[in-house]
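seq:
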Amino acid sequence: MEVLFFGGSFNPPHLGHRHVIETISKSYPDALLYICPNFVSPFKEGGKQFSSKEIWELCLTEFKGFLSKNVFLWDEEIKKPNTSYTVDSLKTLRVLHPNTKVSLVMGEDNLVSFDKWKSYLEILDMINQIIVVRRVTPYPKEIPVPNFLPQSKVIVLSNPVLPVSSTEIRHIFHGNLVNEYLLPQTKELMLKFLDSKGEGFFNETNS
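struct:
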């Protein structure tokens, strides 16, 4: 059995994240997929629009149709008030699943900056593969693999381009949030959280 780790800020979770989960679930039906939202990312330490509890609730709402005995929403990082690092979460996964291959799921946008991740060389030693799911480069054009990554470690799935991002969503006036990016229940929950804070716009400096 293979274990797959899909981490991120999920601020907020949206259709692009759902697409990753759906693609991975279909491509690796026998694998265990850990979806791991964080509260403080090393690249996004300016704070969050939502509390850790709100992010967790949004993820539960957006992803509940995918959660199963093989697909988990994992609280390893969201429960930490300080910065979370992928290398630490992967170490925990290896303790939970000894003698099991662990692979990292990420979007193409994260591939080019992977050498900026904490202990990225250690991560490469720990994992079986980097599975690239969310494309930016239109298919079938080949996604370039950075020189600092071994070609043998990277596998790119042939899924369609989904340009929507959490950043794009946060830049939209919340009263006119476009429905196609979010499930209706997720949108309703987000607006509830924002209204309780008295906020009319997403803060584009937060992630």
